[in-house]
Write a structure and sequence with these properties.
Blueprint lengths: L9 E5 L6 H17 L4 E3 L2 H5 L3 H9 L2 E5 L5 H8 L4 E6 H4 L16 H23 L6
Parallel strand pairs: 1-2, 1-3, 3-4
The structure holds iron/sulfur cluster.
The site of iron/sulfur cluster has 12 residues, from helix 1.
Length: 142
């Protein structure tokens, strides 16, 4: 996404997470949702735009429902949406999803294994559930 955002889209914002498989999973789960599962209902944005205070990005998180997808408990996406004045409707942490997949070998920072993709699809499913809940409750735009 650039600086514009479709009126009633839900913003799905993954953390950067470069160098960690958790970050790759957060981004791939986001793309599954915004590119394949719900392209008409969702959009994403580059977290760095928010971190540097880009006016369009700040406006977008202040006026749309946001779902933050973070690799770990540092919650960079969730915290930066909040710092920008946005409300996080749902915060999802990839590390939490691993609790149901003890011993899983998800892959590396640059490539997922089948197990990694299974966890990614599970997270994408959680995102979709939340998007549907938000749209049903008409919380998508503020
Ligand atoms: S939430 Fe964790 S994995 Fe994601 S950018 Fe922050 S420190 Fe990295």
């Amino acid at each position: 996404m650039g600086n514009e955002c479709v009126d009633n889209a839900v913003l799905v914002i993954p953390c950067s997470g470069i160098g960690k498989v958790h970050g790759l999973i957060s981004r791939e789960a986001t793309y599954l949702v915004t590119d394949e599962l719900a392209p008409e209902q969702t959009e994403t944005m580059c977290l760095a735009l928010l971190v540097k205070g880009d006016p369009g990005a700040v406006e977008a998180v202040r006026t749309h429902a946001c779902i933050a997808i973070d690799g770990c408990a540092k919650a960079c996406a969730e915290k930066n949406v909040q710092i920008a004045g946005g409300a996080v409707a749902k915060a999802i942490q990839v590390a939490e999803a691993f609790k149901n997949h003890r011993g899983a070998k998800p892959g590396s920072a640059t490539m997922l294994t089948d197990e990694g993709w299974a966890i990614t699809r599970e997270i994408a499913g959680s995102i979709i559930s939340e998007v549907e809940r938000l749209r049903a409750s008409e919380e998508v735009a503020r």
